[in-house]
């Protein structure tokens, strides 16, 4: 899942090959488009990391398809074999409307090859391209289903104790049993913060957690932390140290696990909470 090193190498190799083709281009527009492709591949490779942020902005995702379409439309006789790249583009994660756009661009650029290819090969190329695009689309759907399943059992960031909500729901029962068995204090600390600060804050929090403690992403603006302490007093001290390390605008809600009735209810209560910190003192205390 995290084989970014191999992907980075492949992107850099592709960038080098396209750069070599750009150097030999005779047409200025052709060279400009090839250099733009090279830059896109190189920047993507350099910024591809194990962090949560990748180049998923809509404009950045659109660029390779638009560049490929422009290249095939302006100089079809020089890049006819690049038609097959449409099948590869469909394999990348993208919203449905972008899949439709790539399909339309593929059809338009295939039509532009009519004067380059004879009638019979032109139709054959179209049929083969359609088949490969269907295979690419099916592969994309399979990868998306695999990623969805993986998110429910894998850490959200490689090497970080940051897990999805589904993992927290499973861990709550386990930690309740462990707290009873070992006579320790287990507490769920919910944090509400601006979405853009969620992952940087999660990275900071991991330095304040024990190796057996985890952080959970409940939604785009809510983090959950399971604190396991010797007693309630130690838990309060640790909680305060965590809160002191955070920004002032973060709202917190502390719920000892014996008093936790519903994770969804507590999450909704946090979103409506006025004071920066609220500590639940009984199972019926809302």
UniProtKB/TrEMBL annotation:
Q: Membrane: present as a keyword of the record?
A: yes
Q: Which segments cross the bilayer?
A: 32-50, 95-112, 121-138
Going by the entry's taxonomy, the superkingdom of the source organism is recorded as Bacteria
Q: Which UniProt keywords apply?
A: Membrane, Transmembrane, Transmembrane helix
Protein name as catalogued: GGDEF domain-containing protein, diguanylate cyclase (C-di-GMP synthetase) or its enzymatically inactive variants
What's the source species for this entry? Halomonas caseinilytica
């Amino acid at each position: 899942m995290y084989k970014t090193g191999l992907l980075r190498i492949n992107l850099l190799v592709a960038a080098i090959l396209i750069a070599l083709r750009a150097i030999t281009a005779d047409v200025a527009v052709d060279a400009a488009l090839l250099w733009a492709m090279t830059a896109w591949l190189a920047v993507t490779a350099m910024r591809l990391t194990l962090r949560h942020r990748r180049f998923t902005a809509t404009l950045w995702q659109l660029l390779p398809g638009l560049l490929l379409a422009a290249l095939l439309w302006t100089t079809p006789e020089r890049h006819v074999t690049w038609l097959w790249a449409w099948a590869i583009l469909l394999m990348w994660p993208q919203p449905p409307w972008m899949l439709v756009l790539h399909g339309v661009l593929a059809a338009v650029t295939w039509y532009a090859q009519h004067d380059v290819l004879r009638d019979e090969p032109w139709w054959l190329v179209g049929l083969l391209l359609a088949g490969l695009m269907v295979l690419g689309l099916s592969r994309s759907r399979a990868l998306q289903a695999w990623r969805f399943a993986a998110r429910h059992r894998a850490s959200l960031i490689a090497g970080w104790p940051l897990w999805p909500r589904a993992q927290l729901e499973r861990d709550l029962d386990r930690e309740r049993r462990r707290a009873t068995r070992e006579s320790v204090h287990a507490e769920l600390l919910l944090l509400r913060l601006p979405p853009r600060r969620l992952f940087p804050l999660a990275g900071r929090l991991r330095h304040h957690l024990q190796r057996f403690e985890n952080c959970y992403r409940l939604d785009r603006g809510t983090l959950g932390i399971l604190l396991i302490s010797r007693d309630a007093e130690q838990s309060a001290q640790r909680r305060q140290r965590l809160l002191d390390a955070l920004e002032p605008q973060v709202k917190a809600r502390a719920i000892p696990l014996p008093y936790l009735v519903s994770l969804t209810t507590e999450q909704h209560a946090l979103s409506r909470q006025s004071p920066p910190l609220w500590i639940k003192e009984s199972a019926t205390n809302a």
